[in-house]
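quick one
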Amino acid sequence: MIQLQSIHKTFHPETLNEVRALRGIDLQIRRGEFVTIIGTNGSGKSTLLNVLAGTVRPDSGKIVIGGKDVTRQQEHQRARTIARVFQNPFLGTAPDMTIAENLLIASLRGKRRHLRIGLSSARKNRFREQISRLEMQLEDRLDHLIGTLSGGQRQAVSLLMAVLNKPDVLLLDEHTAALDPKSAAQVLALTRSFIESENLTAFMVTHSMSQALDLGDRTLMMHKGEMIDDISAEEKKRLTVDDLLDKFADLRKAEKLTDEMLEQLRREYR
Amino acid sequence: MELWLGAINLGFLYAFMAMGVFITFRIHDFPDITVDGSFVTGAAMTAVGIVSGVNPWLALSLSFLAAAAAGAATALIHTRFAVNGLLAGILVMTALYSINLHIMGRSNIPLLSEPGLIAWAKNLNPGLPSEIWLCLLFGAAIAVFWFLIALFFRTDFGISMRATGNNPAMAAASGIPVNAMKIFGVALANGLVGVSGSLVTQYQGFADIGMGVGSIVFGLAAVIIGETLLPAKSIWIQALSVIAGSIVFRLMVALALYVGLNPIDLKLMTALFVLLILIAPKWIARRRQTSAALSGLSLTPSGYKKARLVGALIVCALAAATAVVFFRPAFFAGKPTIRVGIVQLSDHAVLNMTRNGFLEEMADRGYQNGENVIFYIEDAGGDMATVNSILDKFLQKKVDLIVTISTGCTQAAINKIKETPIVFATVANPFIIGAGQSDTDHLPNVTGVYGAIPMDRMMELTGALLPGKIKIGCIWDPAQVNAVFNVRQLQAQIKKHPDIRFVGATVTGSAEVQQAAQALVHKGIDAFVLVTDNIVFSALDSIIKVADIAKIPVILSDIERLSDGALAACGYDYRQSGVQAAHLADRILKGENPADIPFERYKKLTIAVNPDVAARLGIALSAKLLAQATLAGGHPQKDGPSKRLAVFVFSDNYALELSTQGILDELRRSGVLKKHRITVDVKNAQNDYATAQAIIQDIVRQQYDYIITASSLALQVTANGNKTIPHIFGTVTDPYRMGVAKTARDHLPNLTGVATFQPVESAVSAMRALFPKAKRVGLIWNPAEANSEACTLKAREAAKKFNFELVEKTVGRTDEVKDALAALLNSGIDLFFTSGDNTVILASATLAQILMEHNIPYFTNDPADIERGAFFSVGADYHSVGVETAKMAIRVIHGESPKDIPIREYVPETIGVSVKLADRYGVKIPDAYLAKAAVIRR
Ligand SMILES: Nc1ncnc2c1ncn2[C@@H]1O[C@H](COP(=O)(O)OP(=O)(O)OP(=O)(O)O)[C@@H](O)[C@H]1O
Ligand SMILES: [Mg+2]
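structure w/ adenosine-5'-triphosphate:
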């Protein structure tokens, strides 16, 4: 379904601020696979997702989605197949527009936008039905501005918007990180149910080791722009959080990880 | 009323622009300054289109497209090359200045007599006052526009567009091509601004390169006022609020003018006002917050809402104040009960005099238009069919009284209307049209004022003008019953004057008139004395021609024709006819039955002489005669009500200050102000087009009696905004380019004036005289200045004539002048010249210094430049120009119709010279120049 071939990306090349965010990423993802990604801060997880979405253009390498080379396609062109939810709940929705209008925009993802009245009653009924899946009593607030919702509600709506018009690929970048624990759990449960019920191909970046193990068919570990580990579903079933940390220790032995990095990982994934 | 309606209409027209600004600022969150330029692009496209005969609708579409292209360019620069949006706008706006000049081909295009959408709309008028009709029409158009644009914002596409501005990251992630959307949005916005420019141009009657300045501020103010007034609940309301904001803003400007705010302060007030609206809600919110914090509570959303409410209240209060002023008559006096319809056949000086006399007398008798009476004042434009529809309108309005001015109107009215009282005025003979058998026995609903020519006075006048034994010649058509009657009367009178002999000639058609006149001259007559005869008078020109050649005077019984070239006329006073009609109207409105009111004859006679013709013929006008005569046609001067004269200046600059001073000096010196009890108001538009528009609407609303304008733009604005008040212009380089006149005699009927070309040729001829060997003359000018452009054209001609090579450089701003000069010096010039260019003049001291260092003599068209270091100037003395303008105005005040006064070219040359520089350049200034010089610097 998705192929990445030796993707490189360097920000501010040949300056003092040079950052080599991705250093030769090769990746094959099957249709319907649910991938979780972990890694240290600045390891390039978000950049990888941005490269997939088209927000960032790689310096070299090739991106193939569904058998089609999309390396040169722009973000809005790729949006036909890719949907995403941002870490920041404010980024995923247009705050000064109503919930219904936001849902409408999402439902038009990858379709032509005509001079047709947007919010017909048929469409509104459909949105009302869809939003009930969130179980947040938003059914009667379709005409409210989305800016008036709480962060958790907004993120849940963002998630709904992403899957409203079934995407081939769903990109989730720490989409629960900015939420309080209760909302985070709520959104995570929704994520799981949406991905399973629609059998979506999905990437989820997370900083929670347990989330990474709990969810998904496959876990990728990134460091300094490289993919340093790829844990399969069977392996994940057997692993505990501590096993994973031990795995980091093994990596160190294989001299792929330094001591301080291991320290950092332990600190972060506690 | 015109002022408020005018303001609302402007508000409607500018609403398109406000909507454009709303789209960029609010929807796309893109601070687009292109607007200042694309507004003019829209105006330019339409002006050029209409002048070259393109269908106005097509011109409007072209305006939209051209302005949209400008907007697209800005957005493209911004998105493609990641240039800051504000900067991209400034870049395109700057570029547009040149492009607009190229589109227009010059800096100003008049559309005065061109057909456009406004003219088309006016033609559809079913008989309402023009501004009201336009208001309805614009209102309807805006309502449709509002509906469509709000609908657009609610389509899939429109919602996507709004999302793009609100959250571009989300829009891109949702598959919206953000950049393309932005380009489309900014293009659409500028297209709407272009539509606004197009409509405003057609409304104000001209396009000018400078008309876009400040558009963005206005647009923003409208958007912000609208938002405060109508807080957005939905996109419907949001779109409506933009339109409302545009109208309220215009009304506020009108209010400021109405209460007599100095236009200088207008911009400051605007800025302060917008600031107030911006900060008041926040300030109040903050106060609440502090007090809430003190009491341990946090600011509730309703607290902010209340703060918004206060903002809305401020706007409402101001709007209400406007409304109260607007509807004051209706507010305080209840609905007017009396309605009077006034119809005249055409917009003719004589009929206007009657009408004004009527209206003034009515006002003096306590009938205040809009308060206790409504006057429907109609003009049939010379068309009898229109008279009938006007009468229909009167009936439909259930008028209490109809006043008909002129025989034609009266005839139509008495035929059609049998119940409503009719008062006629300025009718020669009501009996031949069937109004009655005698003064007392007449149609029951009809009365009025009439009169025929007093032959005894006519002979007295002839005797006074030509004392001694004389032979007079008269021409008439024996088929005209009226004429035969008049000639009999004349002959009867002549019998009483033993010194006067009568020679007659009859014609059977106007083609024979000239021959008859020649025959009479052949018989040795000393003067033509002509009594009213329609056939003969229709060929009056040919008699005047014959008389001119033979150098004998023409004396007429029709004052109105005096200015065709006759020496004197004797007839009834048409203004008085209106005054008398007002007396009759008053009696009827007070309850008398018209059947019981006898017809009245004119009570007041007017004698008029034309002093110019007298001087030409060498006829002395005795003091006694002058005392009883109105100088040329017109109405009596004594015991008239006091009058008002507006002196309207477009901006402050040295030449305009001088000429304004000249105007005021001459008006005072001549004593005309005292004699006619005229008060003078000077109005200055401070170089702002919208203000100028408001000023002229105010002048028209206040029904000033005379307007004098100084500067080309004041002329243009006034010519378009005022079609009735006599208007004398001055300090105008080229009125023909302004579209108010084709030739000196063929100009708009209510205006005339003085044209002062810069004495460019004289200056160039002086160059040749002083520097016989010089070849290349450098010239710097700003193509955006209409005057400067005209001067440059003249300079090119003059250079050719005196065998110079003219090397031109153009500039857009004063700070470019130095570089332009450097380029000129580089290319090698022998002399340097600037003409009436305001941009260059500001840098003249610097120019003079540099030129002196390079030993290049500096010629100008303004002697004041000598003090700033120029070498030699031949200029117009603008104070004298003002004096000359005033003199022409005085003729109009004395009763001449502007229509009959040809435009005068007047260039009072003055010379300035620096002797010191002459020594330096080793030239000797001929004494002839020195003798004429007003400024000599040693
Ligand atoms: N647009 C950008 N311009 C410059 N540098 C960037 C840009 N985006 C990312 N970077 C840099 O690239 C590196 C990788 O960043 P990225 O956001 O992909 O990391 P991450 O793995 O998502 O980290 P985190 O866990 O903190 O989200 C960082 O050093 C970051 O500063
Ligand atoms: Mg990240």
